[in-house]
């Protein structure tokens, strides 16, 4: 009986830690939801226009688009990353294992090639 109580205590304490993690995740989820529209606009513009350009000019484009969304009072995630927004981490990892360099430019190209 004491072994069962000990295990139950460990389970309850473990779940208490999960509650804290879930509450933090919900706060993050709400923040992501507020920025979703702006992030989608920037991503759509990136997919439509940024493909043929190099990494430096892509960053210029993103900065300009973010400035435009700010002028229009559209929220965008601070430090927006096209690859971070559009790519699944498991896909990126698979691409890296298959030889795609791990830099942002290559990952963006991977997203453009597979999402177009």
List keywords for this structure.
116 residues, mainly alpha
Walk me through what this model shows.
The chain is mostly helical. 79% of the residues lie in helices and 0% in strands. It has helices at residues 2-50, 55-71, 82-86, 89-97, 104-115. The chain starts with a helix and ends with a helix. The mean pLDDT is 91.
Q: Please state the structural category.
A: mainly alpha
User: What is the approximate shape?
Assistant: elongated
Tally of contiguous helical segments: 5
Biggest sheet architecture: none
Termini separation comes to 60 Å
| Uncertain spans | none
As a percent range, the share of strand residues is: under 5%
- Assign a percent range to the helix content: over 70%
**Quaternary structure annotation:** single chain
Instruction: Give the averaged pLDDT, no decimals.
Output: 91
- Tell me the Rg in angstroms: 20 Å
Along the chain, the helix and strand elements come as: HHHHH
Count the strands?
0
Secondary-structure blueprint:
Elements: H1 2-50, H2 55-71, H3 82-86, H4 89-97, H5 104-115
Helix pairs in contact: 1-2
How is this structure best summarized?
The chain has five helices and no strands. With 116 residues, it is an all-alpha fold.
């Amino acid at each position: 009986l004491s072994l069962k109580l000990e295990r139950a205590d460990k389970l309850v304490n473990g779940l208490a830690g999960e509650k804290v993690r879930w509450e933090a995740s919900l706060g993050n989820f709400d923040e992501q939801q507020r920025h979703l529209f702006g992030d989608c606009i920037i991503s759509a513009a990136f997919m439509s226009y940024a493909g043929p350009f190099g990494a430096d000019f892509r960053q210029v484009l993103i900065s300009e688009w973010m400035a435009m969304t700010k002028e229009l009072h559209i929220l965008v995630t601070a430090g927006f990353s096209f690859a971070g927004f559009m790519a699944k981490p498991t896909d990126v990892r698979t691409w890296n294992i298959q030889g795609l360099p791990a830099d942002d430019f290559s990952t963006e190209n991977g997203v453009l090639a597979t999402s177009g």
